[in-house]
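Weekly sync, protein design subgroup
Attendees: M.S., D.O., the rotation student, P.L. (late)

Item 1: inverse folding check
M.S. brought a backbone from last month's batch and wanted to see whether the design step gives back something sensible before we order anything. D.O. pointed out we never logged the input encoding, so this time it goes straight into the notes. Structure tokens as presented (537 positions):
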């Protein structure tokens, strides 16, 4: 029996960010329709002179759960698309003039990609390979000359000469993200998936092989415009903290002024099929898990915008919708372990001391949108070398900074187990993204995001087993209590000899009353965390 928990946070924990956080900006979305432009999700893109080159992705909505129907060939995008959002025009060309190897990679989903100057680099991607008669993760690196391909598609000319491709097993990755830190490429997380998808597991039906990379694969691309090669560097490997895919990895300006990346959330935790809530910072020297912060509102890949406030030394990251384990309902944080589609727009800010907090914006996505969509920034925006927007250089009260395109549009929050293929679609609408620096609308702090204990309560999928997860900053006795709405204790336990780090306490709690309210409290000598839950079938 599936259960969800409505979590309302009461008297939650002392927390100090160093100064009161004022609303730095707000965002607005304005729809744009381009006649003839179809929907697409989980694609790659490059830009040149205001035009977009869109490659790969899926033409359908959320993938089916049956192996014979999931990620089928009918959903492959076998067209190269060019979009001019200002002129509201689009062009397309079939990939059939390319080699079979290029055709198959460029019709895949969840490729990793990064544009360096005029060249768009693509790696990996997952799709049904006709030549191999199986679903595969492509072990390819592809280099594309974006201006030449855009011009060729618009003018109806051949474009095969503007594509190059090499094979390398380390690039057999899907669902990761590829970004640069200075001159080094970082392929962060992701997985190698071989065979047809099956939610029942690798040993059911035709079976599959799934291997998380558990790493940041680092390399340099050597490209003289003709010859393409790679120099591999030592990877950062962590089977716990880097065991992530289908998520957001966002370029950063770190508090020390250096370039870096932050890997936000992702799936799945090794101990439970739920998203990670912490994040991981990556820089040139290594990686650092951030366990003092939890992100609740945007867990799977969705459009994101990084903006740096140089005057305040604050790094802002804005996320748009997608899929998440939590969403806000009339001020109540709803925990849904089915991990539904959401419409939340949220901001995660890192201050000058490295402290992080999450805020819900008053604006929302116009529907259950965002999963597998992309933010495409305007050419010519004031940005740092790694693409982070210079917030202080946006001097106008309102500035249009880019567009959101594509992604999955869902008809309901939870459709996975009822999905017949008609409950969701690939979104065709484009949205202008406007930044308003003078808005008086406030952003609501998610108090749970920066609590010390990071307390969570969630049910195991069966037999009324509750898991209570929390962080320990120093070894000291703690008291864990659960009580019903009358104050009667369901259990009370002293926890001793706890090591620093994450803990999960599992309790089998019998005879809970559906619809009743229960309070879980975690106490130390100096701090208390309280979560109230309503158990619903």
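Designed sequence read out in the meeting:
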């Amino acid at each position: 029996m599936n259960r969800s928990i409505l979590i309302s946070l009461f008297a939650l924990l002392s927390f100090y960010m160093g100064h009161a956080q004022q609303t730095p900006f707000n965002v607005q979305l304005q729809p744009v329709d381009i006649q003839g432009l179809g929907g697409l999700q989980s694609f790659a893109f490059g830009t040149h002179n205001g035009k977009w080159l869109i490659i790969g992705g899926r033409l359908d909505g959320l993938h089916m759960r049956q192996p014979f129907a999931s990620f089928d060939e009918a959903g492959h995008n076998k067209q190269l698309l060019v979009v001019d959002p200002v002129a509201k025009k689009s062009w397309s060309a079939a990939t059939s003039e390319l080699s079979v190897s290029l055709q198959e990679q460029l019709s895949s989903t969840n490729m990793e990609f990064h544009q360096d100057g005029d060249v768009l680099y693509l790696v990996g991607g997952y799709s049904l390979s006709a030549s191999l008669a199986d679903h595969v993760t492509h072990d390819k690196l592809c280099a594309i000359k974006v201006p030449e391909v855009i011009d060729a598609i618009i003018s109806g000319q051949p474009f095969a000469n503007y594509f190059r491709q090499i094979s390398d097993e380390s690039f057999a990755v899907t669902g990761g993200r590829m970004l640069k830190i200075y001159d080094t490429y970082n392929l962060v997380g992701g997985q190698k998936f071989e065979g047809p998808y099956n939610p029942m597991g690798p040993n059911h039906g035709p079976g599959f092989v799934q291997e998380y990379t558990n790493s940041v694969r680092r390399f340099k691309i050597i490209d003289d415009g003709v010859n393409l090669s790679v120099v591999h560097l030592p990877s950062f490997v962590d089977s716990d903290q880097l065991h992530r895919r289908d998520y957001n990895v966002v370029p950063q300006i770190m508090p020390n002024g250096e370039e870096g990346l932050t890997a936000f959330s992702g799936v799945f935790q090794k101990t439970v099929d739920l998203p990670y809530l912490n994040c991981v910072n990556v820089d040139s020297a290594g990686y650092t898990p951030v366990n003092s912060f939890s992100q609740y509102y945007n867990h799977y890949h969705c459009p994101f915008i990084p903006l740096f406030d140089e005057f305040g030394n604050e790094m802002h990251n804005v996320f748009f919708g997608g899929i998440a384990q939590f969403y806000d309902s009339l001020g109540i944080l709803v925990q849904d372990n089915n991990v539904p589609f959401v419409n939340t727009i949220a901001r995660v800010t890192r201050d000058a001391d490295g402290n992080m907090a999450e805020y819900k914006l008053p604006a929302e996505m116009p529907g259950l949108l965002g999963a597998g969509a992309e933010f495409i920034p305007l050419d010519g925006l004031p940005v740092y070398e790694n693409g982070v927007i210079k917030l202080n250089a946006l001097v106008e009260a309102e500035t249009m900074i880019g567009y959101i395109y594509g992604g999955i549009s869902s008809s309901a929050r939870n459709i996975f187990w009822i999905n017949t293929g008609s409950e969701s679609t690939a979104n065709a609408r484009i949205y202008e993204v406007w930044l308003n620096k003078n808005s008086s609308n406030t952003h609501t702090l998610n108090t749970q995001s920066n609590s010390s204990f990071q307390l969570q309560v969630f049910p195991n999928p069966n037999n009324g087993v509750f898991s209570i997860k929390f962080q320990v900053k120093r070894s000291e006795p703690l008291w864990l209590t659960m009580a019903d709405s009358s104050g009667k204790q369901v259990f009370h336990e002293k926890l001793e000899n706890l090591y620093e780090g994450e803990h999960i306490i599992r309790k089998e709690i019998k005879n809970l009353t559906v619809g009743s309210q229960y309070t879980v409290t975690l106490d130390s000598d100096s701090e208390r965390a309280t979560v109230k839950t309503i158990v619903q079938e």
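Discussion: The radius of gyration is 23 Å. The longest strand covers residues 228-237.
Action: P.L. to compare against the previous round before Friday.
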